[in-house]
Amino acid sequence: IDSQELKEATDTQKELDINCQELMSARQGSGDTVTSKSPKSTEQKQQLGNSEDLRRARCRSKAAMKHSALPADYLRKIQADRQYASDVITATMKKMQASGTFNSLREANGREKAKKNKFHDVLIREEEGKKEIKSLQKQLQDVKKETKIELKNRDSVILCLEDQLQELKARTAMESCYLRKSTALQLHQTQKKCSNAENELAKETENLKRKTDEEIRVHMEIENFLRHHYKKVEEKLEYWVDKYENDTDAKDKELDALKALKAKNLETLQRYASECQTFEETIITDRLQKEAERRKQKQDALELKSILKLQAWWRGTMVRRNLGPYWNLRKAREKKLLEQKDKKEKSGVKKKTR
């Protein structure tokens, strides 16, 4: 198996060398076309990087040739990686020969990165799963301990409950015996009460029969009395009907007489009313005349009073001012005043001479 793997490794190494030479020749042949276009300058750098990757792959293959004593699984893995690398290189070569680009190499690189990331995620999940398993195992141990403790507690509770059950059985036996005796006593008491109630009901039924017989007798007597009274009432009704008819006839006659008297009185009343109306008219006119005379007398008295006041005022003014016939009185007053002044002057002169 080791010799076959070595042969396969040498074959792949030869193929890689051939592919590398083809790649270099293709890069030199298409150098003019690629450099003439400015947007493809980055692709040249990527091609150089790919050539460096090929060199690294050759170095790795040489190192793999040296380690020929590796295990078979590891050699298979190396062989698979080499095969994948050769496939990728051939695909990129074809792509470069066809269109002058190596996008397939980028895509392969991206796929490998995605696989590595996925493998890394798987490893992380595996570690997390291991941690979770450890925590769950620890929780399981804790649960087992708790269940053991709980089982012990339950065993103790079961023992207590068994003791309580025995006590309850003894108590229920005593209570059942007591209940049997009490029910028998209550049954005897109820039977006695029922017999007493039956006797009382029998007495009550006898009393009711006696009362019903008495009520029937009283009813018959009342019925006879009412029939006799009904006959009397019928006789009185006939009497009162006859009396009503006679009285109505008499009252009708009286009513006719009263109507005639009313008509006569109405005529006299109308005549008296007309006379009263004439009397009222004469009285009203007389009162109006008297009121007018009274007002006139009052007005004359007021005028006379005002005239007298005016005359008195005028006389007073004439006296005060010495007008008219009172002029001589003024002169006499003035003379008296002059005489009095002369007397006073003479008396004053005499006193001075003394």
From TrEMBL:
Family label: Belongs to the DRC9 family.
Keywords: Cell projection, Cilium, Coiled coil, Cytoplasm, Cytoskeleton, Flagellum
GO cellular component terms, semicolon-separated: cytoplasm; sperm flagellum
Entry keyword annotation includes Signal: no
Sequence segments annotated as region (Disordered): 23-55
Name of the gene: Iqcg
Pfam family of the protein (one): IQ
PROSITE patterns, alphabetized: IQ
Protein's UniProt name: Dynein regulatory complex protein 9
Coiled-coil ranges (or none): 126-153, 180-214
GO BP field: sperm axoneme assembly
Biased composition (Polar residues): 27-50
Location of the protein in the cell: Cytoplasm, Cytoskeleton, Flagellum axoneme
